[in-house]
């Protein structure tokens, strides 16, 4: 079997003008990878080799879910290579070749994920330059990855050094006019290519087909083609989206890929207006939380305090939904919920209660009924419920719409409400546990990635990625008023959050800095950074608050460190470990091995793996049951959640969920578990205890 350096070439995945991609065995790390070998013609240029290394380093730092991680890069025997995570799937080009034109819903869903990847790269100053269907990988669960960022190009740079026979490197069918003229490129260059991909997905045709001169003439001089004229049945509403995306002048295009997708979603709604399902209730926009009680109309609002540093949250941006509507006769996934609004706050953590109804008797009756049957999200928390014995075979009891792109979910300590992070919408959805429904949204000033609550549930912490740059922040939300009361810049992009059991510290993993950022909730300031090794992603605090555990996904290990700082203790575990949780009663760590397709049980004190349980493909998240008897593992590309007994190292149940299950949350009493379905804009509700 052929070897290239420390890689054993197993089978050829694909090849093209930019080289070959092999399924290869990384003999150093004992794992299968996707190995891209660039052509010798590119390797001859010292300037290109230098730029390749520089840009590959930048791309390797990106942590956007729709970008395939780069493990390593460099030269082997004078040939440039990229070592990437191996992901099973088909290219979008292959789908078009075999299935023809895609439905508008499916097209927009794919483009939304491509746009996420592009906008993340653009925020770091990188342009892909070769956006096309063959550089888009689609998994069996319709999760999308953008590949070939080895061609990424610095924003604002010219093309003069990157030509072959006078033609800019890239694919002509999707090339923006400024590329042919060798003018500087920026994010709008990729927007042009993305608009070409939109056109092709809807019509199964290239915008300007033909030979090289014909393609160049079309991109440089002809008006963008109309989807509705090329393929019957495509709504004319998409014509304007393609026309703006393919405008000849960059300043006339959408500024970001996300803006193009937002316009495509508007066109999608114009083509097929969504109908509200019978029984679906839209809450008033000016209500904080509205709960319907038989015989009475009740609006409950709770004023709370703001801080001097509070900043007004931004309006929500258009959400992104799944490729196909999983609830055609029910509430529309991704449909906007009412924004939470409250009277001006008065003092921090002081709880007020305003009740408005038809009369004094109705007020008393309604309040009693509400508090006895539902409870108030964000109210003064009750005692933590006693965990019930978990079931080895939980059942699905509901699938609930919670807004677009639900990437994370946390249940409040009192178990009465939960927050859902809507990554693409820039909002947090409030979920009423007793009602089993979303009851409102909270705008946040960025893209929410992770959530955590203070021990008393009075505040929530939300990790955000910045909308216009590679930095991020942690924002504080007053749960009574549903308002952002503080913003803490972290100087990096936080990936996961955890709160000390006593509430004295908030921790955020920093994949770029190789550390955990420590925030003091009292001063709302960063007070420390704890080194934990390269690429920390998942994060958890031990039940006693003395230790932190992080997953170093690029290094294939889990690291434990004292919460007060000190030397980290790494333990090799699985492949690309993504998430970690502490067992509630044992000194164990539960680690989801994303690329290893397993759940590892690790002795945190001894630093050794006790057992590894094979799971469905790509376990993304893990959460223990309240009593610790079982762990719930969400496999994002298998569309299942699995129940694992960590003591016997066995899978006791495999339960279908919606598409791309990305997170798991369990109520404190152990009765219910929630799985966020990233591509379906829903939460799958499991009855977890008998």
CATH C-level label of the largest domain: Mainly Beta
Low-confidence regions: 152-168, 273-338, 340-382
> What is the assembly state of the chains in this entry?
single chain
* Largest sheet entry: 6 strands, antiparallel
Summarize the amount of helix as a percent range. Answer: 10-25%
Number of helices: 11
Global Rg:
25 Å
Mean pLDDT figure: 80
Strand content: 35-45%
Tertiary shape:
globular
CATH topology of the largest domain: Methylamine Dehydrogenase, Chain H
Number of domains: 4
Question: SS-based structural class?
Answer: alpha+beta
Provide the CATH architecture of the largest domain: 7 Propeller
Strand order of the largest sheet: 1-2-3-4-6-5
Number of strands: 44
User: End-to-end span in angstroms?
Assistant: 54 Å
Binding site for ATP: 36
EC number: 2.7.11.1
Region (Disordered): 303-346
Transmembrane segments: 353-376
Topology:
Elements: E1 3-4, E2 7-16, E3 19-26, E4 31-37, H1 40-43, H2 46-61, E5 70-76, E6 79-85, E7 90-91, H3 92-99, H4 104-123, E8 126-127, E9 136-138, E10 144-146, E11 153-154, E12 163-164, E13 167-168, H5 177-180, H6 187-203, H7 212-221, H8 227-230, H9 237-245, H10 257-271, E14 289-293, E15 296-301, E16 354-356, H11 360-373, E17 390-401, E18 406-411, E19 417-422, E20 427-432, E21 437-443, E22 447-453, E23 459-465, E24 472-478, E25 483-489, E26 497-499, E27 506-510, E28 515-520, E29 525-531, E30 536-541, E31 547-552, E32 557-562, E33 569-572, E34 577-582, E35 588-593, E36 598-603, E37 608-614, E38 619-624, E39 631-635, E40 640-645, E41 650-656, E42 661-666, E43 672-677, E44 682-689
Antiparallel strand pairs: 1-2, 2-3, 3-4, 4-6, 5-6, 7-9, 8-11, 9-10, 12-13, 14-15, 15-16, 17-44, 18-19, 19-20, 20-21, 22-23, 23-24, 24-25, 26-27, 27-28, 28-29, 30-31, 31-32, 32-33, 34-35, 35-36, 36-37, 38-39, 39-40, 40-41, 42-43, 43-44
Helix pairs in contact: 4-6, 4-10, 6-9, 9-10
Domain Protein kinase: 7-268
Binding site for ATP: 36
Biased composition (Pro residues): 328-345
């Amino acid at each position: 079997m052929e070897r290239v350096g420390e890689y054993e070439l197993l089978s050829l995945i694909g090849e093209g003008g930019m080289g070959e991609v092999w399924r290869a065995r990384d003999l150093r790390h004992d794992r299968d990878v996707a190995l891209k070998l660039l052509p010798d013609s590119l390797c001859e240029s010292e300037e290109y080799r230098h730029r390749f290394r520089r840009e590959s380093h930048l791309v390797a730092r990106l942590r956007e879910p729709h970008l395939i991680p780069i493990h390593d890069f460099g030269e082997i025997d004078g040939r440039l290579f990229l070592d990437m995570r191996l992901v099973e799937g088909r290219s979008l080009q292959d789908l078009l070749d075999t299935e023809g034109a895609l439905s508008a819903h499916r097209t927009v869903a794919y483009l939304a994920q491509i746009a996420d990847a592009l906008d993340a790269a653009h925020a770091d100053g990188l342009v892909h330059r070769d956006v096309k269907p063959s550089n888009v990988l689609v998994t069996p669960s319709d999760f999308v990855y953008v590949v070939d960022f080895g061609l990424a190009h610095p924003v604002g740079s010219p093309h003069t050094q990157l030509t072959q026979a006078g033609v800019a490197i890239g694919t002509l069918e999707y090339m923006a006019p400024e590329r042919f003229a060798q003018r500087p490129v920026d994010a709008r260059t990729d927007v042009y290519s993305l608009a070409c991909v939109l056109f092709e997905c809807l019509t199964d045709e290239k915008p300007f087909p033909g030979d090289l001169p014909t393609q160049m003439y079309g991109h440089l001089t002809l008006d963008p083609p109309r989807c509705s004229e090329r393929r019957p049945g495509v709504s004319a509403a998409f014509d304007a989206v393609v026309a703006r995306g393919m405008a000849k002048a960059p300043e006339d295009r959408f500024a970001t890929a996300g803006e193009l997708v937002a316009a495509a979603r508007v066109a999608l709604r114009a083509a097929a207006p969504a109908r509200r399902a019978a029984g679906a209730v839209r809450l008033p926009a000016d209500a904080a939380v509205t709960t319907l009680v038989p015989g009475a109309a009740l609006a409950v609002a709770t004023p709370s305090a703001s801080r001097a540093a509070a900043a007004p949250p931004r309006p929500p941006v258009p959400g992104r939904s799944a490729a196909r509507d999983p609830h055609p006769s029910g509430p529309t996934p991704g449909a906007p919920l009412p924004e939470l609004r409250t009277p001006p706050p008065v003092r921090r953590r002081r709880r007020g209660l305003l009740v408005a109804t038809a009369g004094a008797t109705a007020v008393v009756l309604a309040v009693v009924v509400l508090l006895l049957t539902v409870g108030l999200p964000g109210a003064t928390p009750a005692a933590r419920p006693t965990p019930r014995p978990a079931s080895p075979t939980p059942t699905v009891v509901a699938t609930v719409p919670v807004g677009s792109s639900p990437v994370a979910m946390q249940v409040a300590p009192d178990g009465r409400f939960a927050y859902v992070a809507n990554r693409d919408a820039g909002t947090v959805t409030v979920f009423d546990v007793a009602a089993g429904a979303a009851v409102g949204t909270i705008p946040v000033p960025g893209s929410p990635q992770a959530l955590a609550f203070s021990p008393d549930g009075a505040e929530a912490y939300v990790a955000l990625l910045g909308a216009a740059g590679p930095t991020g922040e942690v924002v504080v939300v007053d749960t009574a008023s549903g308002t952002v009361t503080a913003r803490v810049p972290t100087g990096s992009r936080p990936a996961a959050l955890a709160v000390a059991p006593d509430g004295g510290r908030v921790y955020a993993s920093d994949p770029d800095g190789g550390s955990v950022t420590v925030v003091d909730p009292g001063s709302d300031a960063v007070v420390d950074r704890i080194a934990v090794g390269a690429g920390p992603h998942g994060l958890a605090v031990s039940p006693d608050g003395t230790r932190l555990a992080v997953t170093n996904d690029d290094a294939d290990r889990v690291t434990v460190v004292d919460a007060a700082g000190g030397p980290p203790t790494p333990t090799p575990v699985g492949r690309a470990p993504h998430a970690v949780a502490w067992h509630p009663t044992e000194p164990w760590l539960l680690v989801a091995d994303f690329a290893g397709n397993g759940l590892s049980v690790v002795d945190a004190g001894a630093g050794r793996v006790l057992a590894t349980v094979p799971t469905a493909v790509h376990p993304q998240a893990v959460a223990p049951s309240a009593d610790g008897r079982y762990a719930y593992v969400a496999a994002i590309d298998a569309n299942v959640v699995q129940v694992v007994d960590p003591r016997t190292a066995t899978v006791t149940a495999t339960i279908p969920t919606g598409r791309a299950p990305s997170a798991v949350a369990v109520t404190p009493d152990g009765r219910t578990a929630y799985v966020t379905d990233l591509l379906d804009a829903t939460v799958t509700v499991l009855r977890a205890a008998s």
